[in-house]
Every structure is written in C-alpha cells, then in structure tokens.
Design goal:
Elements (H helix, E strand, L loop, with lengths): L1 H44 L4 H12 L2 H14 L2 H15 L1 H16 L5 H12 L5 H10 L1
Helix pairs in contact: 1-5, 1-6, 2-3, 2-7, 6-7
C-alpha cells in the first residue's frame, strides 16, 4: 500500500512539473511571437510620418476627438514636404491591413496553431514589457 501511495505522489509531482514546463514553453513561444510581430509591424510603422504615429498613439491613449484636434493643429503649421509625406502615408494606411498581412504572413502562419485566448493574452503581456512594441500592445489591448 505504501508503494502505491508513493508512486501516486511521484506521478502527481511529475504531472505538475510537466504542466509547469508546458506553461513555460507556451510563455516563451508567446514572447518570441510577440517580438516577431512587433518587428514586422514596426517595419511598416517606421515608414510613416512620425505625426501619423502620434495620431495613432493618441487615438488609443486619449480620446479620438483630442487626437484629431492635435493632428489638425500640427497640419496647420506643417511644411509642404510634411503634407506630401502625410498624404502618401494616409494612402498606405488605407491599405495597412493588406500590407501587414503580406509582410507578416509567415509569422501569422508560424503561430496560427497557437490561436487561443490564453496565447493571445500571453502575447499581449509580452508586448507590454517592451517599449518598442507599445503601439502594437495598445492596439491589441484596445481590441479586447
């Protein structure tokens, strides 16, 4: 009887360690996925005029009306060069979903089998710890 009890305890401890190892692996995969997605998205965002990025950030962090007011104030004093760049970038942003899907397709496919609410939350948590991923973090967080 003692042997069965002892074996049962060993089995339970082993299962607990296995689950813990799986959770750590899932967290590591979520972290890697978050960095890859962040890098991919940032390659697109870094091509945009900085004021458009500010508009995106403020639209999430502030209210939409205040963000638009700040953007309009910028436009009133913007140079012709800035206006041209912003116009071009607005066209790009109209196609942002298509562009990002094309650029990041391999990353999406690589992690599509991890598509669970827990994985998504782990990914968002990983993004929250990286200042370079602040915009992606805020976008994903606002969609929840």
């Amino acid at each position: 009887m003692k042997n069965i009890f002892f074996l049962l305890i060993i089995l339970l401890v082993s299962i607990g360690h296995s689950q813990s190892a799986l959770e750590n692996k899932d967290l590591a995969v979520a972290y890697i996925a978050s960095m890859e997605l962040c890098d991919c998205m940032n390659t697109f965002l870094n091509e945009l005029h900085p004021q458009l990025l500010t508009l995106l950030e403020e639209s999430i962090e502030l209210d939409q009306e205040k963000a638009e007011e700040n953007f309009m104030n910028f436009l009133l004093s913007a140079s012709e060069e800035d206006m041209d760049k912003i116009s071009q970038d607005i066209e790009l942003m109209n196609n942002a979903e298509v562009i990002l899907n094309q650029r990041c397709e391999m990353i999406y496919e690589k992690y599509e089998h991890f598509d669970t609410p827990k994985f998504e939350q782990d990914l968002i948590n990983a993004l929250s710890n990286n200042e370079d991923c602040k915009l992606l973090y805020n976008i994903l967080k606002s969609e929840k």
